[in-house]
Structure prediction request, 145 residues.
Amino acid sequence: MRLSYAVQLDSSSRAVQVSSDEACFMCVLHALRADRDARSTAKVNVLIRHIVMWKLNEGEGRTREQNASVLKEKLEACRDAVPGIVHLEVGIATPGLDSTYDVVLVSDFTDKAALDAYQVHPAHQAVKAFLAPIREARQAVDYEL
Prediction:
């Protein structure tokens, strides 16, 4: 079965006879092009990457390594508790490798408002309270992706 399908080539349009499979393929191409065009003109939210590194001490009845493990658990609990987190990854420095910090957090937020909400969220406040007596140093950087 042959169908008539309008095709636009450059600035001219013309009707061509195509099979139903070819027509389906052309419809898919048209939909993909429309989607691409819509995305290129839509306002794109800029993700915010939030990176923090901590150097820890012994304290609260735990070794430095134990405190790093507990911190990792507490930070990872924020992943599902705090809205607006797109990605959250926590790493603990590998023993035997040169490291100046013990724990690193790499997290991405939907926007600055989501990062701001994270800062005051009870789950994050619990992390800060845990860190207060065991933190030796902290470094952080936030930037747009």
